[in-house]
Design a protein that fits this description.
It catalyses: 1-hexadecanoyl-2-(9Z-octadecenoyl)-sn-glycero-3-phosphate + H2O = 2-(9Z-octadecenoyl)-sn-glycero-3-phosphate + hexadecanoate + H(+). By secondary structure, the protein is an alpha/beta fold. Helices cover about 25% and strands about 30% of the residues. It is built from 9 helices and 17 strands. Strands 2-1-4-3-5-6-7-8-10-9 form a 10-stranded mixed beta sheet, sandwiched between helices. Strands 11, 12, 13, 14, 15, 16 and 17 form a 7-stranded antiparallel beta sheet that branches. Helix 5 (about 120-145) packs parallel to helix 6. The protein is elongated, with a radius of gyration of 27 Å.
Length: about 450
């Protein structure tokens, strides 16, 4: 008898657990065979809220107000994936759902158009972007008819999904509140008119992050603000040769998602600076944030309210930042102003080292040769993969490559080092130091007068 009761109890628990998992709707997981033969477009909406973060609920396109978890008065964010050549779900879906829910109380709708995006033929997936956009546009129009405000709708699109978001916004007359494009797809969208890709007119505010413009990403400027991580091209830590396999093809492109996730998680504070090119940014020519005062320069992330009005007034703005190869991706940046005097013209690069106790960090500023002659003022950007504080000693070397003949002396009349992302930290200065080319000189920083 005891065994019978035990069997019944265990059976009941099993059925209960099975029922609970069965109540959750998961993202479509297709096999490679389906991708090879091709999939027909079918769009699903998976609803997540703070009340069901671990258990998505498929939201019907009609009678959606009957779903008690869906609150039409809450802001709604759509997450739209891109091309899925293998049919597997994106690995970042759960992460972005949880991080978005942490920002504010939202309806989070994951747009599952895997049937349509999962095709070995990329051109078929591109053709399906319009149908996907029409489907979601119809749903948003139904939301609006039920009293939802388009101002509170945010579309986040990844790769091809960024253009889907753009098409939705365009079909709605640019009235949606915001579109975020994470490395919008480049193939089949390069050189096309604005109405055939993501464009600033597609929403009240459009922000775009570029990480792979020389391969799968789209070159150019396509939002009210365009963030270019490491110039929008090759990302640190990503493979440089085809022998690395799949990662060689997807790493740079996927980095846009991981940078955005890191920004949502507030573990990366990625400040970007308005500039005409990444080269000019690395040369220290674009480190001014006066246009955004009293705010800082724009920071990648969810909350753009500090900069939105200024960006809409400025028009399309390009902003640049550099990252490390790994989490938390943030570099520590300093603006370095040098005044040198030397009798003979010298060309070289600068190696700057900062010391705190036994710890040392180094920045090699070698993106271009610097000119030193007689009385020269030079501004450079020094970026470090780590942050040290307090700085107890500074080492400087001007490398000219001169290995034959005498070492020329260079007089450093002044060096001023300004922390860019930590304005509460003091400026560091030193005055009147005699140094030789290719030889390191070390000194203790002093308060700037």
């Amino acid at each position: 008898m005891m065994s019978l009761w035990l069997f019944l109890i265990l059976g009941s628990i099993f059925m209960l657990c099975k029922g609970e998992s069965g109540d959750c709707d998961n993202f479509s997981d297709l096999d490679l065979h389906e991708c090879l033969i091709g999939t027909n477009l079918y769009v699903r909406l998976l609803l997540y809220t703070r009340a069901n973060l671990e258990c998505g609920q498929e939201l019907p396109h009609h009678n959606f107000t009957q779903q008690p978890l869906f609150n039409i008065t809450r802001p709604t964010t759509f997450v739209i994936h891109g091309y899925r050549p293998t049919g597997a779900p994106p690995i970042w879906i759960n992460h972005i759902v949880h991080l978005l829910a942490a920002q504010e109380d939202l309806n989070i709708l994951v747009v599952d158009w895997n049937r349509g995006a999962a095709n070995l033929n990329y051109f078929t997936a591109v053709a399906n972007t319009r149908g996907t956009a029409e489907n979601i546009t119809g749903f948003i129009q139904s939301m609006e008819a039920e009293g939802a405000s388009l101002d509170s709708i945010h579309l986040i699109g990844v790769s091809l999904g960024a253009h889907v978001a753009g098409f939705i916004g365009s079909m709605l007359g640019g009235r949606v509140g915001r579109i975020t494009g994470l490395d919008p797809a480049g193939p089949m969208f390069a050189g096309v008119p604005p109405e055939e890709r993501l464009d600033p007119t597609d929403a009240q505010f459009v922000d775009v992050l570029h990480t792979d413009m020389n391969s799968f990403g789209l070159r150019g400027t396509h939002g009210h603000i365009d963030f270019y991580a490491n110039g929008g091209l090759d990302q640190p830590g990503c493979p440089k040769t085809i022998f690395s396999g799949k990662s060689y093809f997807v790493c740079d492109h996927q980095r846009s998602v991981f940078l955005y996730l890191c920004a949502l998680n507030r573990t990366c504070h990625l400040t970007a600076y308005p500039c005409s090119s990444y080269t000019d940014f690395l040369s220290g020519q674009c480190l001014q944030c006066e246009a955004f005062k009293p705010a800082s320069c724009p920071v990648l992330g969810y909350d753009m309210s500090k900069w939105k009005d200024t960006l809409l007034r400025l028009g399309q703005t390009r902003v640049f930042f550099s990252t490390t190869a790994e989490l938390p991706y943030r570099k520590t940046s300093y603006r370095v102003d040098l005044v040198t005097w030397n009798q003979f013209l010298r060309w070289g690069v600068i190696i700057l080292r900062l010391h705190s106790g036994k710890n040392v960090i180094e920045s090699r500023i070698d993106n271009k040769l610097l000119r030193f002659e007689q009385y020269t003022s030079t501004r450079i950007l020094a970026q470090f993969d780590e942050d040290l504080y307090p700085i107890q000693k500074i080492s400087l070397r001007i490398v000219t490559g001169n290995v034959i003949g005498p070492r020329y002396k260079i007089r450093l009349l002044r060096i001023r080092i300004s922390p860019l992302e930590n304005p509460d930290r003091s400026l560091m200065c030193r005055y009147d130091i005699i140094m030789e080319e290719n030889a390191e000189v070390s000194f203790k920083p002093l308060p700037c007068s």
